[in-house]
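pinging the channel bc i need a second pair of eyes. not urgent but kinda urgent?? the chain im working w is below, pasted from the shared doc
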Amino acid sequence: MPRPVTTSPTARALGQQGEDAAAHYLESCGYELIARNWRYGRLGEIDAVALLSSAAVLAFVEVKTRRAASAETPFDAVTPQKRRTLTRLALAFLAEHPQYQAYSLRFDVIAALAERGGLRLYHLPNAFEAFEFDL
């Protein structure tokens, strides 16, 4: 039987730092944060929903934070199952916020690597397409 995964307080704090840094980064790039840590029941959470009005784009953003010495890259952590869940969450978000349905939709991933001296962010816009998966 698999053991449950637990997150140490240090890992949780690091993850929060990554999400905060990603939010500041998005705002500095001209995005308006519509929601952070948006939850839909037991389905899960979207780390950030960001609007880029100049391009009429609504981005659903997954933030993955890792220590630089980690064997797995943050992008590797966005598995097909996670992509499927994010797609479902995005549909739920749009159902609850129909005013955003006219925007082009995009799924972005921001990787935050903890290095000496702070976090280094890598933004991958349009990391995957929603239509790749059966809902």
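so The helical segments are 9-28, 80-96. and The chain has a mean pLDDT of 88. — does that match what u expected or am i reading it wrong
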